[in-house]
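Below is how a single chain appears once it has passed through the pipeline. First comes the sequence as given, then the structure the pipeline wrote out for it. We keep one example in the README because the format questions we get most often are answered faster by looking than by reading.
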Amino acid sequence: MTYELVRGGVYLIDAEYHGRHGVLGTYLVKGEMSMVIDTGPTASIPGVLQDLRRIGVGRDQLILVGATHIHLDHSGGSWRVLELYPKSQLHVHPRGAPHMVEPSKLEAAARQFFGDSVDEYGEIRGVDEKRIRPSSDGEELDLDGTTVKVVWTPGHASHHQCYYLSMDRVLILGDAGGLYSAKSGAILPTTPPPFNPDKAVESLDKLIALEPEIVCYGHFGYADRGVERLRSYKDQILLWSRIAERSVDEGLSIDEARELLIQEDPMLRKFGEITRRRENSIATNLLGFMEYFKWLKGEDKRRADH
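Resulting structure:
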């Protein structure tokens, strides 16, 4: 089984991605009317569709396809779900909506950062503009009795948003809460450039104020003690910010800054041995902080959207 009940009507779907599981969490809010959040890339859609059928979501029941943000690993396969569920609309932040209609710039940006590995996501296709429902901050989506609150959470991306079910106290985070390891309980920032740590902290304060009991991560899984985990992640963002700013001021390389960070962040030690792959992940996400502080100090003129 590749899905499980989180609480109430919220399900986690763990669709296979090139033979792997635990890569990205797709979440289903099921009621008389249903909503699927973060479909994943097109390569994962066959598994998502299979589990939707297993859970019993009919073609006329799915009315919203929610995107926490438009990055291809989270929402690249939205077009396919919309195609097969004719009554559904894509619910997305208005800043991201144009790129879901015409994804060429989105694809180009992904290729600039990830190279040819973007091909693994599968087909990238735009959606019909008429099928898009732009979000608004604080709006409440009515799924025929089940209410889902929308919370704009810029930081990881300017078009990021979270979904909160107040009745069940379940918060679906996308990438606003970092990368979570159910095995160790550790969290790693998901903060590649462009990233805005100041806005990320403001967003975390908004989420903490909701007092969620369960938090659902895009990468990967869900956990209890939601407020505690969000506060811990906020502290981690603040720590990485201090180290990144210091590294920029002292002219440290990304490798030197990474080593300093490994020494200073107790959360990273929860992962156990820091492998080469983990080192690369830390460096990639630390780069988001360092580029931000270079921009803030006027050393990088390329980024105007902060």
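The mean pLDDT is 94.

See the next section for the split statistics.
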